[in-house]
Amino acid sequence: MFRLKEMPTSASTMFSAYASFAATTMLIRSMANELIPHPLRSSLSSLFHHLFTPLSFNLTLVIHEFSSNGMSHNQLYDAAQLYLTTKINASTQRRLRVSKTPRQKCLTVSIEKGEEISDRFDNIGLKWRFVYTEGQDQNSQKCERRCFELTFHKKYKDKVLDSYLPYVIDSANEIRNKQRVLKLYNMHCPQDGTNIRIGGLRGGWGSINLEHPATFDTLAMDPSMKKAIIEDLDRFVRRKEFYKKVGKAWKRGYLLYGPPGTGKSSLVAAMANYLKFDIYDLELTSIFSNSELRRVLLSTTNRSILVIEDIDCSMQMKDRQSFHQSQHFDEPSTFFLGVHQPSNSNSKLTLSGLLNFIDGLWSSCGDERIIVFTTNHKDKIDPALLRPGRMDVHINMSYCSGHAFKLLASNYLGLHENFENPLYQEVHGLIETTRVTPAEVAEELMKDDDATVALQGLAGFLKRKRVEDIEMKDEGVDDHKVGEAKKLRSNTDVSRIAKGIQEFQGISFY
Predict the structure, then answer these.
(1) DSSP characters over 419-459
(2) What pTM does this model have?
């Protein structure tokens, strides 16, 4: 050791001493790298880190929003998010997030990033912390990462894992059942304080509350058809053990087809309201690869309805064999989901990728799910999508029938089925022989509060529609045949076909 008076004072002397020390350190480090094996160096480094790290008696569990692969949603994260809303204490929190959408009845209060919440369970002190970061994924796309950090004393690790966390999940389920609000998810839906954005790093699901008023009671549909659909839904939800026993994924596929305005979207909403299932509205045009489709679909939750509306318009799926017999195209092209695509198409989504999730190996990644396709032109869809196991129930949403008119007249004008009025009977007869959709009939009935005036307007509209139908050269069906087809369909009883297909008033059960 230098005495104070002997210590070097000049800058050059101090720099020389520092350079000598640095050179010696680098020499020792190089010799250590050459002479000491890497496993031994790692062990020594871990030992020094352990010896010189301040002793801590706390353990922190990190609960990420998604699983390690970024595809599956973390059930514990959702449970913690809901559970902690009941533990917010305004006297101890410094910052809170408050939001309210126009459709919400109450304010929504949640914790802001970096905030902490204290909790106790069987005399165990626990501290929750919400962590939120922004960054970029491997595709240079903006991504958001959320997690909860749960800190407690190390000696309670087993009790927290075995008792506390299951308690959090159970509590969240109870809260969810009491505050059950159906959600409508979409990949382009903006996120607010009440929404949960799920689905990974790019283009995740955003949600709004589903407040569609459609129910089976208000649907303009034949009563027998409604009954058949409700019975099929009830049979599906109570057959968990049956699906497990026969080795099938617990899912059900519905194809809704028919002209625009026949109530396909309303039927989907009625199914969701009846089952209390959330709806995921998927636009295939926003998916660019099979892997992205798989990631997006895996992020959907159980007890939900996946809807792909107007599948014939978004992807124009057709019979793949027809393209081998079709005319040659002038420019280079590819076939995407069985559809001719120009060569500049960037999409890598294929029909096999979609089919693999519907009833392939990936179809088992989830329970109690319903898949619904809607289309205006069933004949344009590739038959591979329509077979049993993929689309199990085919529902023909056809033109308005006499039964549907009576229900619409009751809903919109308050007219009962036994209403005796010549104009009412005239409209009923015109409905049976005119191609008109329930949406068109409903629009006419809404034009006046007076029942007589509304019926007069509807009668005039139907007569004009009949004239238009007659004048349509490209339609090979006359009004008489349309009426006969409607009457035949409305009088059809349940029958079984030899191959096991059951036809019931426009519904095919496979």
Answers:
(1) ---HHHHHHHHHHHTS---HHHHHHHHTT-SSHHHHHHHHH
(2) 0.65
- Give the integer Cα–Cα distance in Å for 393 and 137: 40
* 78 and 197 Cβ atoms separated by less than 8 Å: no
For tokens 């690790």, the residue is 157
What is the SS3 string spanning 385-426?
HCCCCCCCEEEECCCCCHHHHHHHHHHHHCCCCCCCCHHHHH
- Cβ atoms of residues 425 and 458 within 8 Å: no
Instruction: Answer whether 510's CB lies under 8 Å from 388's CB.
Output: yes
Q: Where are the beta strands (DSSP E) in 181-265?
A: 183-186, 206-209, 251-257
| Domain locations along the chain | 58-182, 212-397, 402-490
The rounded distance, in Å, linking the Cα atoms of 207 and 281 is: 10
With contact defined as beta carbons under 8 Å apart, do 271 and 370 qualify? yes
pLDDT tens sequence across 441-481: 999 999 999 999 999 999 999 999 888 877 775 555 554 54
Over the stretch 27-60, which tens digit does the pLDDT of each residue have?
777 777 777 776 776 777 766 666 665 667 889 9
Rounded to an integer, what distance in angstroms lies between the CA atom of residue 283 and that of residue 186?
A: 8
CATH for the stretch 212-397: 3.40.50.300
**What six digits make up the tokens of 458?**
């509807």
Sign of CA dihedral 180, 185, 190, 195: positive
Give me the pLDDT at residue 59, please.
92
User: CA–CA separation, 324 vs 464, rounded Å?
Assistant: 43
Helix 422-432 × helix 479-490 angle, to 10°? 100
Q: Any idea what the Cα angle at residue 20 is, between residues 15 and 22, rounded to 5°? A: 95
End-to-end Cα spacing for the chain: 93
Tell me the three state secondary structure of residue 288: coil
- Residue 454: partners with Cβ closer than 8 Å, 6 or more residues away: 412, 413, 444, 445, 446, 447, 448
3-class SS of residue 62: strand
CA distance 495 to 224: 13
> How many residues are recorded in the chain?
510
